[in-house]
Design a protein that fits this description.
Blueprint lengths: L2 H24 L30 H14 L19 E2 L6 H10 L16 H5 L12 H15 L3 H8 L27 E3 L2 E3 L2 H9 L42 E3 L2 E4 L2 E8 L3 E9 L2 E16 L4 H4 L2 E3 H4 L19 E9 L5 E23 L5 E18 L2 E10 L4 E9 L3 E3 L8 E5 L2 E4 L1 E11 L5 E16 L2 E16 L2 H4 E3 L7 E9 L5 E9 L21 E7 L35 E13 L15 E9 L14 E4 L12
Antiparallel strand pairs: 1-10, 2-3, 4-5, 5-6, 6-7, 7-8, 8-9, 8-18, 10-11, 11-12, 12-13, 12-27, 13-14, 14-26, 15-17, 16-17, 18-25, 19-20, 19-22, 19-25, 21-24, 22-23, 23-26, 24-25
Protein name: Amine oxidase
Enzyme class: oxidoreductase
GO cellular component, one term: plasma membrane
């Protein structure tokens, strides 16, 4: 073969390779590339949203410095303080009264902040109606450490029993304690009783004596090896192929500045209460305020078991710190890689501010579902639709064993969606006796204890102004004669409309019949003569939170109602307080007192919404509870608020017909 032939073959081979590469590179690519407008960066406001902002670390330091110099008592850092010491438990912002806020936001009035603290006053009696007993305070980490020391000291009194039952000397056993706790002097703390395998003892010494005397039925538990630990989340397989990722071709279509985010007509001020968790203010759509405040109030977990620890567990998570324990989010799993991550600062049980980095995320979410669409094949042939994307504000709180995913979502239709998912580890009890009356066996000697989750939100709606009324609608049937045939009858659905006049009517008891349409209505009408309204639509599987006959029930009486609506009036207390956990028998705030049958017609109203579900742990809750099926929430949906669906103005709407060139950018971007 001569050189010329070789060169010709090489050229042909290179040409073939080049053609194949071109085919591979263009496979699946659109026939042409359309030029898109860059995303518009919306105006995030003039800084007025900072009136709702969480305190900065610098402001917290200023408060601590002021208190140390002006309280007139010796302060011990809370991280080291004994119950008998004076300390700064926490520092948080007190949002001004709504009337003052609105004068500032809408009327141009001047409202703080002060450069440095200048004075202080005790508002305890004014706010709570009396002094707050010291025993109602949340238990500090230092106290939990002292409790653990006490437990370890007591365990040392039963060495032979621990060796036999658990292959342990007690030092490797974890302790979980329940509240409340009493005496201010740690030296006077004592163990009142000991429970083991269905039997109660006066002390660990008595437990040891019963074991030595062979009067105790011992269940031997082998110490698990590291690779066999029940509930381990370590991967069992090597990494697989990567899943789909979210992509923003031209960058984010939302804007974040300080504590405000804007997105396609939406404007929201966001923050985090260290105790009660996420809180949003001044939520506007197309310049009009829809919601003044949307905030998490409380999360209840109430357990059942035939063990004393399990049956007495009533966690009010606000007391532990829903916002404080919202930790850093993992990119690509907790939130998309492309999300905007925001740090949250708090000062709790310390005189030094702490920061949870990247603990709140904001992102646009492609729901992989049309917001609306239609394909017409009758008379005319066309397609119209709009992709469903939402703005999501998310935080995730880890409260000992459970992880709560808090989502606030803003849709192109003008709707707001609020939802919570539960995941994390189940709480368990030692399985003995008739334990399966209270759950399922999920591992060796392990009872997954049944429990309920109840979540409570405050929704201060301002629908086309502050003055609203509550309207309900539902369907009934009327039996009528057919107008075209008087011999026959027909069951005709009709709409039952009602305006609720007083708070008692607007407090819908849990599990009682409830109208399917509940709306906050403005006195003004839309183009078609209907009152401009926003509808509350709830997705929940909550059961009875606690019988009202229970002496503890008043502390969680917000759970009586699904939505409960009241005149806002001068009420500025939250539905629950950190002091309710440790004294539920005489709660510092009882939500039931909020509902006092005031008139609610054309008033500034607040909706209090409870959602929840029953969780009976099962084998598939090990190692972790999954989010699938364990989510509840509610929608705030426009109902005759607009004259048409506002998403019709979206620049992302799609429409093409048989008369158009579907390959043209103008017709089909």
């Amino acid at each position: 073969m001569n050189m010329k032939t070789v060169l010709i073959l090489l050229v042909l081979a290179l040409a073939t390779i080049f053609a194949l590469v071109c085919v591979l590179l263009t496979r699946g690519r659109a026939p042409s590339s359309c030029q898109h407008q860059p995303p518009e960066q919306e105006d995030t406001g003039d800084g007025r949203s900072l009136v709702f902002a969480d305190l900065t670390p610098e402001e917290m330091v200023q408060v601590v410095r002021y208190l140390r110099g002006n309280l007139g008592v010796q302060l011990v850092d809370a991280s080291r303080a004994k119950p008998s010491d004076n300390c700064i438990a926490s520092v948080d912002v007190q949002v001004p009264a709504k009337a003052e806020e609105l004068r500032f936001l809408d009327g141009g009035a001047v409202l703080g902040p002060l450069r440095t603290p200048a004075y202080h006053r005790d508002v305890t009696v004014q706010k709570y109606g009396g002094k707050v007993p010291y025993h109602r305070r949340p238990v500090t980490i230092k106290e939990y450490m002292d409790i653990n020391v006490l437990i370890q000291r007591e365990l040392r009194k039963a060495p032979r029993f621990l060796t036999e039952c658990c292959e342990s000397d007690g030092t490797d056993l974890a302790s979980l304690t329940t509240a409340p706790h009493g005496d201010l002097h740690v030296s006077r703390w004592q163990l009142r009783q000991v429970f083991y395998n269905g039997q109660y003892f006066a002390s660990t010494g008595d437990l040891e004596d019963a074991f030595v005397a062979d009067l105790l039925k011992v269940v031997k538990i082998k110490k698990p090896q590291a690779e066999a630990v029940l509930g381990s989340m370590r991967p069992r397989r090597p990494p697989g192929s990567l899943g789909p990722l979210q992509y923003e071709p031209q960058g984010p279509r939302y804007s974040v500045k300080d504590n405000r985010v804007t997105f396609q007509g939406w404007s929201i001020a966001f923050g985090m209460n260290p105790n009660s968790g996420p809180r949003l203010f001044d939520i506007r759509y197309r310049g009009q305020r829809i919601v003044y405040e949307l905030s998490l109030q409380e999360a209840l977990a109430l357990y059942g078991s035939n063990c004393p620890g399990g049956m007495s567990t009533r966690y009010l998570d606000g007391s532990f710190g829903i916002g404080r324990f919202a930790y850093e989010l993992v990119r690509g799993l907790d939130c998309p890689y492309t999300a905007t991550y925001v740090d949250q600062h708090y000062l709790v049980e310390s005189e030094t501010p702490k920061t949870n980095e990247n603990s709140l995320c904001i992102f646009e979410h492609d729901a992989a579902l049309p917001l609306r669409r239609h394909f017409s094949d009758l008379q005319s042939l066309y397609y119209g639709g709009l992709q469903k994307t939402t703005l999501v504000i998310r935080a995730i709180s880890t409260l000992i064993n459970y992880d709560y995913i808090w989502d606030f979502m803003f849709h192109g239709s003008g709707a707001i969606e609020v939802r919570v998912h539960a995941t994390g580890y189940i709480s368990s009890s030692f399985l003995h006796g008739q334990g399966t009356n209270y759950g399922n066996k999920v591992g060796p000697h392990t009872l997954g204890t049944m429990h309920l989750h109840h979540i409570h939100y405050k929704v201060d709606l301002d629908v086309d102004g502050q003055l609203n009324s509550l309207e309900t609608q539902d369907m009934g049937y009327e039996l009528v004669k057919e107008p075209w045939s008087m011999q026959n009858t027909i069951e005709r659905p009709y709409l039952r409309r009602k305006r609720l006049e007083r708070e008692d009517e607007a407090a819908f008891w849990l599990n009682a019949p409830m109208p399917r349409y509940i709306s906050f209505a403005s006195p003004r009408s839309n183009k078609w003569g209907h009152l401009r309204s926003y509808r509350i639509q709830i997705t929940s599987f909550a059961g009875e939170h606690l019988p009202t006959s229970s002496p503890m029930e008043r502390s969680i009486s917000w759970g009586r109602w699904v939505p409960g609506s009241q005149q806002r009036g001068g009420c500025w207390l939250p539905a629950s307080l950190i002091y309710n956990q440790n004294d539920p028998w005489t709660p510092t705030v009882a939500f039931a007192d909020f509902i006092n049958n005031e008139t609610i017609t054309n008033k500034d109203l607040v909706a209090w919404i409870s959602v929840g579900f029953l969780h009976v742990p099962h084998a598939e809750d090990v190692p972790n509870t999954v989010t699938v099926g364990n989510g509840v929430g509610f929608f705030l949906r426009p109902y005759n608020y607009f004259d048409e669906d506002p998403s019709v103005d979206s620049p992302n709407s799609i429409y093409f017909s048989s008369e158009q060139d579907a390959g043209a950018c103008g017709a089909n971007p």
